[in-house]
Amino acid sequence: MKTPMITRYEGGVHTDKLSTRLLLPEEQPESWKKVLADSVTDPEELLGILNLPKTLLPGAISGDKAFSMRIPRPYIDRMIRGDQFDPLLRQVLPLGEESEEISGYSLDPLAEQSQNPTEGIIHKYQGRLLMIVSGACAINCRFCFRRHFPYGDNQLGGESWKQAIAYIRSQESIHEVILSGGDPLAATDSRLARMVDALSDIPHVKTLRIHTRLPIVIPQRVTDEMIEWFCKGRLKPVLVIHCNHANEIDDHVAQSLQKLRQAGATLLNQTVLLRGVNDNAETLADLSHTLFDAGVLPYYLHLLDRVQGAAHFDIAEEKAKVLVNELMHQCPGYLVPKLVREVAGEASKTPIPIN
Ligand code: SF4
Question: Which atom of ligand 1 is nearest to the CA of 145?
Answer without folding.
Answer: 4
